Amino acid sequence: VAMALKEPSLYYLVSGDTKHRDAAMKGIQSLMTYHGQLNGMFSGDEWLAGTHPSQGVELCAVVEYMFTLENLFRIYGEGIYGDILERVAFNALPATISVDWTSHQYVQQVNQIKCTAERRNWTENRDDANMFGLEPNFGCCTANMHQGWPKFAARLWMATDDKGLVALSYAPCKVHAVVADGVIVDITVDTAYPFAEKINIAVSIDRNAEFPVKLRIPQWCEKPQIKVNGEIRDFMVVSGIISLNRCWNNGDIIELMLPMHLYVEHRSNNAVGVLRGPLLFALPLEEVWSRRSGNLPFANYEILPKENSKWNYALRLDVGQPNTSFVVCEHPVGHQPFDARQVPVFLKGKACRIPQWIEEMNSAGTLPISPVTTSELTEDVTLVPYGSARLRIAEFPFTENK
Q1: Distance between CA 242 and CA 257 in Å, rounded?
Q2: Any residues with CB less than 8 A from the CB of 92 and at least 6 apart, and which?
Q3: What's this model's pTM, rounded to 2 decimal places?
Q4: pLDDT at residue 300, as a whole number
Q5: Phi and psi at residue 373, to the nearest 5°
Q6: Which pLDDT score is estimated for 54?
Q7: 8-state DSSP, 378
Q8: Which stretches of 124-249 are DSSP H helices?
């Protein structure tokens, strides 16, 4: 399914038929309505499996969907495909691979309270499908997982048909390209995005030239700001893209600010996910890794929560103003930003235990309908980026914070 979503768009390049142009987005909208998950993916364990946050999402589907979204942006130049891509790349991809890249899962769960060889509500997977290892369940993800980041990096910037460049997504990178009438340009991007808001883009060019530099503005960003050589520039966003058309000189600097605010996404039973920019946030559980088979460094592991590490919390949340319910904390980005022990950004908030929310079939059960009531004491909680926590709760019930 993840691969096939790009097929009508590729055929549209031949046919020019609007039904082929529109088919990909219609497919994405249908998938997310009936099978969508907070991490940007749709369920598939193996079959499409609905919206419950304990259903599985296959790693192969993650990397193939990323490649599809990169192609949809290439064909249409519409920013929405970059928005979806970032949700998947910065959340679903790192979450299902160990921080040292020696093990991975076959399927991940948005609400994942343990990774064990036990029966779960999969539609067509073995009991070991959410364990971490060299080759859990089937070997395809072992072969496919490595295409995710390289293809993403290779498509951060693309050439445009008007002899310019366009940014699909933002990450530290250097682009060597030909623009205008055969002019060589180097674009150097310095940023801590998606953990921080500021993106610096330096232009190095062998001679002055006029060409467009186009930048994607995510839909979640309400008040973007752009400066060129320190001067604020006015701009218009068209299909999620702004265009800077000017004569570029060697040493020009573009400063793009994408202010991030906290927002919630509503789910079944009025549950919520908490997001900041493209990042989904989750309650991490302390992890105890146990080797079950295989040889180091590529062994197979079960992961259990540390004793007394609880997961069944409802957030104390003002859903209309989530910024008032959390404090955003930021640290410098380390070598491995997707490690729950040293994350670059985290949220401090309040939550209450919900005893009636229990484990079902070795997974977090169906969420109680929110807002929930509880007599449990309010506790301090820390939420980390979803991609950094291998055991986690990311889809929460909530109690009204009044």
Answers
A1: 13
A2: 37, 39, 40, 41, 57, 62, 108, 387
A3: 0.96
A4: 96
A5: -115, 145
A6: 98
A7: E
A8: 140-144, 148-154
Beta strands (DSSP E) in 104-258 are 107-108, 157-159, 165-167, 173-179, 183-191, 198-205, 209-216, 225-228, 231-232, 241-248, 253-257
State phi, psi for 45 to the nearest 5 degrees.
-140, 60
Residue 106: closest CA among 56, 36, 162, 65 = 56
Q: What is the pLDDT of residues 5-32, one digit of tens each?
A: 999 999 999 999 999 999 999 999 999 9
Q: How many CB atoms are located within 10 Å of the residue 36 CB? A: 19
Q: Is the pLDDT of residue 401 over 60?
A: no
pLDDT band at 34 (very low <50, low <70, confident <90, very high): very high
Gyration radius from the chain CA atoms: 22
Check if the beta carbon of residue 188 is closer than 8 Å to that of residue 202. yes
Whether the bond between 344 and the residue before it is cis, its omega within 30 degrees of 0, is: no
Element (H, E) at 253: strand 253-257
Question: Distances in Å between the alpha carbon of 190 and those of 170, 212, 256?
Answer: 9, 20, 11
Q: Side chain identity at 57, as an amino acid letter?
A: V
345-371 tens-digit pLDDT: 999 999 999 999 999 999 999 999 999
CA distance 358 to 156: 42
Confidence of residue 400 (pLDDT cuts 50, 70, 90): confident
Give residue for tokens 């995005």: 193
Contact 352, 266 (CB under 8 A): no
How far apart, in whole angstroms, are the C-alpha atoms of residue 394 and residue 122?
19
Count helices and strands in the chain by DSSP H and E runs: 7, 25
Residue type, 236: M
* Angle at CA of residue 283, ends 278 and 286, nearest 5°: 130
pLDDT tens per residue, range 285-317: 999 999 999 999 999 999 999 998 999 999 999
Task: Identify residue 8 by its one-letter amino acid code.
Answer: P
**Distance (Å) of CA 377 to CA 13, 245, 316, 351:** 59, 57, 11, 8
Distance CA 36, CA 242 (A): 29
Q: Is the pLDDT of residue 99 over 60?
A: yes
